[in-house]
């Protein structure tokens, strides 16, 4: 701390924290759509702070800890508070317990990430990232406003969603981290065309497409786990047979 801190990446982290806090202000005012949009803004700031720090060589222990504390607020407390005020309040104790479960699992997910950050591969996250979980909450709120779905359906859907997201955050499912260095290298021309088409589709139906994208990402972890289960079983059996063959005779 005596040597100072890096300003640029920590400014983006502060932007994420501000967006999360302002989302809570909007929630208190009953403006849930604005609250959802500010959570998405917090996710953008959170994605930029790490990339800026790595690109400029300004990563630091202080920045990692500050980022985690900001994430607890912006992607734990803020979406939990939004879900409770918007849909879970009528459930009484069950509602606020569900909202607290989301907050607690987000904090546990971040604590586990900090402990494992140097021991797991950078291309995969273990457990659903908290920004993705919070963004799914935001996309769901915006989707309900977009289609004008009834309040009774909203309550049940959010109650199921919050338990699902809480479980995925503390699960061992692996999710792509988008930190692969190959992404910024030369890619085929068709890859650029695909990205342009994706932007066009998102611009045409932003609410529906954002919800679809986040839903696909959230389901990618469990689906990948199921699809790779036979291969992992064969590998475990092969390792077990290898240990058995190497065991000395009695």
Annotate the secondary structure layout.
Elements: H1 7-28, H2 32-56, H3 61-88, H4 93-116, E1 124-126, H5 130-147, H6 151-169, E2 174-176, H7 189-204, H8 206-227, H9 229-246
Characteristic key phrases:
single chain; 250 residues; mainly alpha; Four Helix Bundle (Hemerythrin (Met), subunit A); two-stranded antiparallel ribbon
Kindly summarize this structure in a few lines.
GO terms for molecular function: CDP-diacylglycerol-serine O-phosphatidyltransferase activity. 77% of the residues lie in helices and 2% in strands.
What does this structure look like?
The protein is an all-alpha fold. It has one domain: Up-down Bundle (Four Helix Bundle (Hemerythrin (Met), subunit A)), CATH 1.20.120.1760. The chain is globular, with a radius of gyration of 21 Å. The chain has nine helices and two strands; from the N terminus they run H-H-H-H-E-H-H-E-H-H-H. The termini are far apart. A two-stranded antiparallel ribbon has the order 1-2. The longest helix has 28 residues, at 61-88.
| Strand-residue proportion | under 5%
At the third CATH level, what is the topology name? Four Helix Bundle (Hemerythrin (Met), subunit A)
Instruction: Report the top-level CATH class.
Output: Mainly Alpha
**How would the global form be characterised?**
globular
**Helical content class:** over 70%
Low-confidence stretches: none
Separation of the first and last Cα atoms? 60 Å
Q: Assign the CATH architecture.
A: Up-down Bundle
The CATH homologous superfamily is named: CDP-alcohol phosphotransferase transmembrane (TM) domain
Q: Taking all residues together, what is the mean pLDDT? A: 85
Class of secondary structure makeup: mainly alpha
Q: What's the total number of strands? A: 2
Radius of gyration, CA atoms, in whole angstroms: 21 Å
Name the assembly state.
single chain
Strand order of the largest sheet: 1-2
Order of helices and strands: HHHHEHHEHHH
Counted up, domains total 1
The major beta sheet can be summarized as: 2 strands, antiparallel
Quickly count the helices: 9
